[in-house]
Structure formats: structure tokens, C-alpha cells
Write a sequence for this structure.
């Protein structure tokens, strides 16, 4: 699975798996760099997904506010 196909939940689960491995010292030095790089990719992915979700939610609320303002305007005009 590529990073682009990874869901937020999958990324968090993979990060938790990497963290558990690092905490138990079962990762050899050769594998450590790859795991740290993968962790950085996953963190970037999670941050981007959170930013996208926030932007989408903001748009929904703005749309609702616009609808409410339009309704109030129409009530005042009629």
C-alpha cells in the first residue's frame, strides 16, 4: 500500500506499531533509519489529512452560515 492509499487510521496504526518496536529495542540499527523515515512520511500524511478535513469542515460551516444569511435576507425582503 502506498502512502497515498493509506487512510488516517492505517497511518496511526502503523506509527503505533513502529513506536512499539522502537520501545522494545527490537529494531536493529540498519532498520532504524528506514522506520524513522517511514514514520516521518506517515506523520506528514496524517497532518495533511487533518488539514484537509479541517478545510472541508470550515467550508461546510461557511456554507451553512451563507445559507442562514440568505434565509434572513429573504425573510427581511418579503
Amino acid at each position: 500500500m502506498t502512502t497515498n492509499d493509506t487512510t488516517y487510521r492505517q497511518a496511526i496504526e502503523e506509527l503505533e506499531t513502529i513506536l512499539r518496536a522502537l520501545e522494545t529495542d527490537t529494531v536493529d540499527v540498519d532498520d532504524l533509519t528506514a522506520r524513522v523515515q517511514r514514520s516521518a512520511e506517515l506523520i506528514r500524511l496524517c497532518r495533511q489529512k487533518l488539514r484537509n478535513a479541517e478545510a472541508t469542515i470550515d467550508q461546510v460551516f461557511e456554507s451553512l452560515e451563507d445559507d442562514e444569511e440568505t434565509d434572513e435576507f429573504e425573510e427581511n425582503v418579503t
Notes: Residues 3-77 form one domain. The chain has one domain: 3-77.
